[in-house]
Design goal:
CATH topology of the domain at 241-324: Elongation Factor Tu (Ef-tu), domain 3
Strand order of the largest sheet: 2-11-14-13-12-15
Shape: elongated
Order of helices and strands: HHHEEEEEEHHEEEEEHEEEEEEEEEEEH
CATH superfamily of the domain at 241-324: Efflux pump adaptor protein, beta barrel domain
Radius of gyration: 52 Å
Structural class: alpha+beta
Helix content: 25-40%
Distance between the termini: 43 Å
Largest sheet: 6 strands, antiparallel, barrel
CATH class of the domain at 241-324: Mainly Beta
């Protein structure tokens, strides 16, 4: 009986040994005790007894986890004067534009200029048919000559009457009659002179000259055309140098504009679109009333335009410094966060982010004057979207000068890690036959 039991144990031991040998030859590996031990803790939460205490400890462990560090770039708040600049759009308009019309009905005899030409004040532009006016002038001059001759005779009669009266040959009434005739003839000659002056004025209407310097536009008549007095438009003369830019000034900037006018006009900069150029001018005019519907005041600035780049009707971008904020705390606008909590910035203190509400006083050209922080405070600039209150802050390192060598160093550092994997595979396959 004992022998059979002993033989049976030997057979079982031999079977187990054969099984181990077959597994080794087949190249399969069983899980190592370390792997089992490593897997055991991972499975432990699933096998632990469930209960109120176990459920309550899981959230507590997550809440106590520290916030991850955030890599950001920072900037310091500065204390400086920030100019308040008004940015608006204006339209170029001429200071003087004259629409020429004839004052008499006549025919165009000659045109003395070309379309688009620049003319000077007093330059002859049109000549009209003046034969009728010349004849009227000659008639008035002839009448004056006749009346002057009559006046000379009346004066001689008056002098003779005075001599005869002194010799008692005529009465005083005859002398008075001679005097009246002389004075009336003298008045007639004055009327004749006035008629001559009127004829000269009418004749001058036949020669149309430029009332001001500028550029002429399209000529609306031709030689031989009949023009109606005060009806037919001949041509338009537009003054281009200097030239004005009209714009609407917000009501809040009206006191600054009026103050600038007292000092000779505040400087104004005009910029044409598409790189057309930048021009310097001065504020010259502010309207006397505010538009109730828009809350703006019409204003005008004047610019030198010798090169003729500013053209009437063109739109320009105006920039005018109307005020300045002295000793303002200035930060970049990119550092400001607009959110449900209002306007905030993140201030770095002891390598951690602190949420700080701020108020924007004025913002322009990428800078903002704010209140709520002090000059010298370190403000998060780039990377603020990942920052949370009390987040650890890591200043972003500057790029190395040898930027091309960094990838090579990273590749060389990663090379052993990549080579370790084939080594482990080779070690794991060492048991293969």
């Amino acid at each position: 009986m004992h022998m059979n039991i002993l033989a049976r144990h030997h057979l079982l031991a031999l079977s187990a040994l054969c099984s181990v040998f077959m597994v080794a030859c087949s190249g399969k590996q069983e899980a190592s005790p370390n792997a089992a031990n490593a897997a055991a803790p991972a499975a432990a939460p699933a096998t632990t007894a469930s209960g109120p205490n176990a459920v309550a400890t899981a959230p507590a462990a997550g809440a106590s986890a520290p916030l991850p560090p955030v890599t950001v770039s920072t900037v310091k708040a500065q204390k400086r004067d920030l100019p308040v600049t008004l940015q608006i759009t204006g339209a170029v308009s001429p200071l003087n534009s004259v629409d020429l019309r004839s004052q008499v009905t006549s025919t165009v005899s000659k045109i003395h200029f070309a379309e688009g030409q620049f003319v000077k004040k007093g330059q002859l532009l049109f000549t009209l048919d003046s034969r009728t006016d010349e004849a009227n002038l000659a008639k008035a001059q002839a009448q004056l000559a006749k009346d002057q001759a009559s006046l000379a005779d009346a004066r001689r009669q008056y002098e003779r009457a005075k001599q005869l009266f002194a010799q008692n040959f005529i009465s005083q009434g005859a002398v008075d009659t001679a005097q009246t005739l002389m004075e009336s003839t003298a008045a007639t000659t004055l009327a004749d002179q006035a008629a001559i002056d009127a004829a000269k004025v009418a004749l001058s209407f036949d020669r149309i000259a430029a009332p001001s310097s500028g550029r002429v536009g399209t000529v609306n008549v031709a030689t031989g055309s009949l023009v109606q007095a005060n009806v037919t438009s001949l041509v338009t003369i537009t003054q281009l140098d200097p030239i004005a830019v009209a714009f609407s000034l917000p009501q809040r900037n009206l006191p600054d504009a009026l103050h600038a006018l007292k000092g000779g006009g505040a400087p104004v900069t005009a910029k044409l679109a598409d790189g057309g150029g930048t021009f310097k001018g001065k504020l010259q005019f502010v309207d006397s009333s505010v538009n109730a519907s828009s809350g703006t005041v019409q204003a005008k600035a004047v610019f030198p335009n010798k090169e003729g780049k500013l053209w009437p009707g063109a739109f320009v971008e105006l920039s005018q410094t109307v005020n300045a904020l002295p000793d303002a705390t200035v930060i970049p606008q990119a550092a400001i966060v607009q959110g449900p909590r209002g306007t905030i910035v993140y201030v770095v203190e002891d390598s951690k982010a602190r949420l700080q509400p701020v108020k924007v006083v004025y913002a322009e050209a990428g800078d903002a004057a704010v209140t709520g922080i002090k000059p010298g405070d370190v403000i998060v600039m780039d990377g603020k979207q990942n920052v949370r209150p009390n987040s650890p802050i890591v200043e972003r390192a500057k790029e190395p000068k040898g930027g091309a060598s960094a990838p090579a160093a990273a590749a060389s550092a990663a090379a052993p890690a990549e080579g370790a994997r084939p080594a482990s595979v080779q070690a794991s396959g060492a048991g293969k036959p």
